[in-house]
């Protein structure tokens, strides 16, 4: 004689098996992270020789000067004071500058991986004026080495600089040299010496082309910075410390920034070059983390977003995995304790394994055929498999069709939740409420502690 387990014991077994299946769900979650990391490594290899995410800044006028510093030292028990003349630098930002940027995007692929690259054409004008109140900064006019001044421009990945770089000061072309860029771009870029003997106001015009990938960041400097950018890429993301007025359509975007030094919190004349900003990429890594100058610069970023980021969508879908397991197990449990079907622990386990397999198939196929088609293929395969299996487990095709309809509704709902991110929590909570109410209603007359009828085990 085999005594049937009480409904409470059946519930306990279903809960324990469902809890155990959270472990493979966590493994799938880790797999998504690993594949995302591999994709980022592959994308970085694609952009080798082209240019990575770019951070640009400048122009900044660097003025050397003779700094007199008083030092004291002990010699034969006596304090000796002496004046030492050292060479130091002042960093003068423009009184005003206007920057224009035209970004020409493209998608580069290798195997199943792809990344967004671009060629940015930058140009601008800037006006420099020597502050009349230099002595407030502890420097006198006659200490300045104006004939040794230099203009510096920053580009974080100088491999992307093209051959059309031009800088003119008061209409005269400035010979340029590589390196020695501004600190806010990691020290990379280009510069040119300028003899500013008279200290008169300077009008600078400049232009250059820059190759990069995924994002472009501008570090504004000066009394006022006007930045106008446009591109044919229809999926921009504007990030950083300053957000623009922008228009976005299927044909591209245009954006305008207006930043003053009051917002930057910087004087036009500094005794050190501000350090690099923190620019995070979609993988939550930072391009520049440490400070290479005094403080940390503020910045504005344009990110060329890939709208079909399969890893983020699969990652979100895995977080709903417990709902699939829970709802399916509840349906099995109701057929078991209310409908009279007998569901063994191994059958719960195999059904849960099929539900977890869906997310692995979704990830694998998404990398090749895209998220939507992969979702349709993986869900159809798992619904068909579990519906057929349920017919054997529950002993009826009518019950199996209910399981199939339940899974179809769950997968359709999950796709809606992934599409409506802002409403996903509310929809999910309402769904759980009605599911709980349904289970309570179906089991309202069950004595969970009672032992069911005894039956002779069938061979």
Summarize the structure.
With 459 residues, this protein is α+β, with helices and mostly antiparallel strands.
Walk me through the structure:
Helices cover 35% and strands 31% of the residues. It is of the alpha+beta class and 459 residues long. The strands form 3 sheets. Strands 2, 3, 6, 9, 10, 12, 14, 17 and 18 form a 9-stranded mixed beta sheet that branches. It has an 8-stranded mixed beta sheet with strand order 8-7-11-5-4-13-16-15. The N and C termini lie close together (12 Å). 34% of the residues are buried.
Question: Secondary-structure blueprint of this entry?
Answer:
Layout: E1 2-3, H1 7-20, H2 22-46, E2 54-75, E3 78-92, E4 96-110, E5 113-128, E6 149-155, E7 166-169, E8 172-173, E9 177-178, E10 189-194, E11 202-213, E12 215-219, E13 224-231, E14 236-240, E15 245-249, E16 252-260, H3 261-264, E17 269-270, E18 300-304, H4 310-318, H5 321-337, H6 345-369, H7 371-394, H8 397-419, H9 424-442, E19 454-455
Parallel strand pairs: 2-12, 4-13
Antiparallel strand pairs: 1-19, 2-3, 2-6, 3-17, 4-5, 5-11, 6-10, 7-8, 7-11, 9-10, 12-18, 13-16, 14-18, 15-16
What is the number of helices?
Answer: 9
Q: H/E element string?
A: EHHEEEEEEEEEEEEEEEHEEHHHHHHE
Question: Stretches where pLDDT falls below 50 for ≥5 residues?
Answer: 283-293, 451-459
Largest sheet: 9 strands, mixed
Determine the mean pLDDT.
83
Overall 3D shape:
elongated
Distance between the termini: 12 Å
Rg is 33 Å
- Going by helix content, strand content and strand pairing, the class is alpha+beta
Beta-strand fraction estimate: 25-35%
